[in-house]
Amino acid sequence: MKRLATIGLALALAVLPACKKERRDNRSGGGAAEEDAKPVPDDEVPLRDLVANYGVRNFDQINEVMHIVTGVDPRTKSISDTFNQVTMQLPNDNDVATFSGSTQVGVVKLATGYCEVAFETPALSAAIIPGFLLDGKPNAAFAPLGRLALIEGLTTKFWGKDFADLPNRMRTGSVLNGLLDELLAGVNMDEPTVTKKIAKSLCIAVLASSPTLLF
């Protein structure tokens, strides 16, 4: 769990939604232009812009959005038990400045519960990652087309598609492919049970990252 929390936090920071230049420029009048004169890459978000332009979902909203995007019933005992355990770690309001490492740990725990149920329910996993060989051997499931199906399925289902503030798709793919490489290092590539375990880990990282949490 500690490793997944670290992965989730790293992914959250790596793929923060792009704060578009036009959004920054339209936030205020000419006085802000001098403040923002230093170029900022489109895939990086200065802290002042993050706090000014985004809110973080509170504990009920996080639970609700995870329910909606995974299709898992929040009344499932394992989910409701986990939610009750981590509620105090999750945000009470929508102030993004209150988000902390403890918050991310709670989010990862809740995402773990949702991904566990979703990927053990064939109808739900098929809806999230169509085309991915969840029960196949890793050497086949994580071939280039399989990786694409897994990454595209998770990011599209959990984050949406064609929204202006979504992370850069190329950078996201690079980060998630790197994470897959790390998770697959040293595993038995002929063991089918490994495939589901790795896919669940990627599910947790994507579900617990900033595009799910911020609005």
Quick structural gist:
With 215 residues, this protein is mostly helical.
Largest sheet: none
Mean pLDDT level = 82
Q: What is the helix fraction of residues, given as a range?
A: 55-70%
Give the strand tally: 0
Percent in strands: under 5%
Shape: globular
**Overall structural domain count:** 1
Structural class: mainly alpha
Uncertain segments: 1-6, 12-42
Task: Work out the radius of gyration.
Answer: 18 Å
How many H/I helices? 13
Distance between the termini: 26 Å
What is the H/E string? HHHHHHHHHHHHH
Q: What do these coordinates show?
A:
- The protein has 215 residues and is mostly helical.
- It has one domain.
- The protein is 63% helix and 0% strand.
- It is built from 13 helices and no strands.
- It has helices spanning 2-14, 21-26, 31-35, 47-53, 59-70, 77-86, 101-119, 122-128, 138-141, 144-159, 169-184, 192-207, 210-213.
- Helix 10 (144-159) runs parallel beside helix 12.
- The radius of gyration is 18 Å and the shape is globular.
- The model is unreliable at 1-6 and 12-42 (pLDDT under 50).
